[in-house]
Amino acid sequence: MKHSQSKYPSFLTFCAAAVITVGPVFAHASVLDIESNAKIAPVATTTDRMIVKYKETGPVVPGASLMAAGGKERLAIVQRSGQQFGLTMKALHTTANGAQILKLDKKMDVKEVAAIAKDLMERDTSIEYAEPDRIMHPLFTPNDPRYSEQWHYGDTTGGLRLPAAWDLSTGTGVVVAVLDTGFRPHADLAGQFVGGYDFITDTKIANDGNGRDADASDPGDAVAAGECGNGRPLQSQNSSWHGTHVAGTIAAKTNNGVGVAGVAFNAKVLPLRVLGKCGGYTSDIADAITWASGGTVSGVPANANKARVINMSLGGGGACDTTTQNAINGARSRGTVVIVAAGNDNVNVSGSSPANCSGVVAIAATRKDGGRASYSNYGTLIDVAAPGGDTGGLILSTLNAGTNAPGADNYANYAGTSMATPHVAGVAALMLSKNSALTPDEIESKLKSTARAFPATCNSCGTGIVDALAAVKSVTGGTTPPAGTTINEAEANNTTASANAVTVSGTVVKGNMGSSTDSDYFAVQLPAGKTLSAALTIGSSSADYDLYAYNASGTQVAMSENGAGVADSLSTANTGTTTTTRYVRVKYYSGGTGATSGAYSLKLSW
């Protein structure tokens, strides 16, 4: 061995992540109490904000767009319209598409704000659209009893048929955005998150002392009775840690001997905080949708971890608003599928936004016997259903033990369409990991066409219960490269979390060491009983790069550290009974760098 001990790569932490879903309903309110089968509180119908989009022809200008062309006249019209309804309005900020957020000096019924918006449009023909900035809320139905197993993955009647799908895909290389209450650090989610953001602009809702920032951690969303206005909620409610529960279903660490498993445990979760005390505003949620999918939001740094899946387990009543629909359209145009919870009010989903928006995958919830959960919304706009839990069994995932402020790690059983949605977001991540060329429409179509028939009554619940195995199998053909193909390395792939997926035995990867600190990672789903062989050839005889292999937990299992001018090769066997992940790493040691001097070829076979 030519190198000193210091050359050995350090232990790699195994990371997993997930997908995201959408769907509005009143935070903590409109939550079904499984024990009493009674509603805790009705859906919130008030807001103190309005969204106004002017017909601008130039680029979006950050700040108070009311003061752009015709600003004084526009401001005067706004003031007159407010006076007509006995209130004042002021400009707060602009959204990603240039819409102006107006702050009302009091909370009003959404219908009243809609009337003000209509009056404003009639007064000013330069307005493209105006609408209430409605407040959305988490969708879930908590229950105290804890179950020690996740029936919702493998149960032959009501489960997701997930374990067999893991033999084909575990979500490697896919980022799932979770638009929710943020996240709590948790031992079973360590390393599963990538750089999130807090999009909440209202400091009271944020409950963290500030507005938008790069800290997406959840400080808690506990509220006292009546704190949210108009007597809501009817009783005090503890912090939900809703986003942490959703994230755990998508990407909790698996095979680590701790806690629970995630649907797409080798995916990554992008946590975006849009819900806090009493919910969250449509305008903040729309900006988060835009940013998660790779769009630009004024004042927010560029997103380095574009999500291919957005999970929105949130919602509210009413038709899909223009602001949300525009954000969804933008996300879809950038290749991101948007998955949304149908809602927990046992009503037609046509009245629940954003599940009723065009282009989303709307998810109903089923119980353990495969029938519709008693609380789940339904209707022709539902695409598919997934396990959401009910009195016969709930959904176990990661949580926090704090009743108000954060406490210790724990786990809890919840029920709701909020719990069904991350199951589907996780399956979407499994599909994309297997075939990254899938479009949002193709993902939706394949989820629907491969869903299995309901084993119990579930009228107007979509085409069936999502079948993880069938969905992943449906995307393995067509665009899969033939054996012996050559592909190019794709940056950034400097960690196991961002490893390039290699799906076909015999593939030759063409790459290069961009700098003296460069490392390139490649991920292979190695079937049981198979041996992975890696052979590294370097273009320059004076260059010295080395080769390492790691198991799914990040432990080094093989290495080759030959000197300059000598090829490196290694092999590692899967002696287990199921498919597992192997990571192969090419690491710079000495010699040339760059596209020419740093070029290498890596052949992976199994």
TrEMBL record:
Q: Name one Pfam family in it.
A: Peptidase_S8
Protein name as catalogued: S8 family serine peptidase
What residue stretch is flagged as signal peptide? 1-27
User: Entry's SUPFAM superfamilies?
Assistant: Collagen-binding domain, Subtilisin-like
Q: Peptidase S8/S53 domain: from which residue to which, for each copy?
A: 171-464
Say yes or no: keyword Signal present: yes
User: Where's the active site on this chain?
Assistant: 180 (charge relay system), 242 (charge relay system), 418 (charge relay system)
Provide the organism lineage as a comma list. Answer: Bacteria, Pseudomonadati, Pseudomonadota, Betaproteobacteria, Burkholderiales
What family does the entry list?
Belongs to the peptidase S8 family.
Entry keyword set = Hydrolase, Protease, Serine protease, Signal
